[in-house]
Design goal:
The chain has 145 residues and is mainly alpha-helical. It contains six helices and two strands.
Length: 145
């Protein structure tokens, strides 16, 4: 009912529903299995390496899962496996001209950096600027449409 391959992660909808509604949270408050999911995504995507043609297809296939993780981030940010994934996903989307699709990753990255480094840290401020620029580009594109 759950399959993890080099290119995909699939979990039957019934299993997803049961896990969401009955599983107790992890000790840090995050949903059960969240850390395992983040680690599973780290393996095929390896955000620290240069993208290759095969890796690009993997990123594209797994992007919806990353969006869901970024939009629902809870728990202790100092024990986070997804920060590099969020940053790299935002950079990849921006580089492809999809700044609006990068916004959930930039929001999650900003939240993590505010919690770990504080509001005045240089990386927090840089994350805030990148998020503002992505929102501005999205709004400008919407105004032209």
């Amino acid at each position: 009912m759950a399959t993890v391959t080099r290119h995909t992660i699939s979990v039957h909808r019934l299993v997803q529903t049961v896990l969401r509604t009955t599983a107790p949270p992890e000790p840090d408050g995050s949903p059960t299995g969240r850390h395992a999911t983040e680690l599973a995504l780290l393996r095929p995507l390896n955000p620290e390496e240069e993208p290759e043609p095969v890796a690009t297809a993997e990123w594209d296939a797994l992007m919806p899962h990353l969006v869901a993780l970024a939009a629902t981030r809870t728990g202790d940010p100092r024990n986070d496996h997804a920060t590099a994934l969020y940053r790299t996903a935002a950079e990849r989307l921006h580089g492809q001209g999809h700044s609006a699709r990068a916004i959930p990753f930039l929001q999650a990255l900003l939240r993590l950096r505010e919690q770990v480094r504080g509001d005045t840290h240089l990386r927090t401020q840089a994350s805030r600027r990148y998020l503002a620029a992505a929102i501005r580009r999205r709004d400008e594109r919407a105004a032209r449409s």
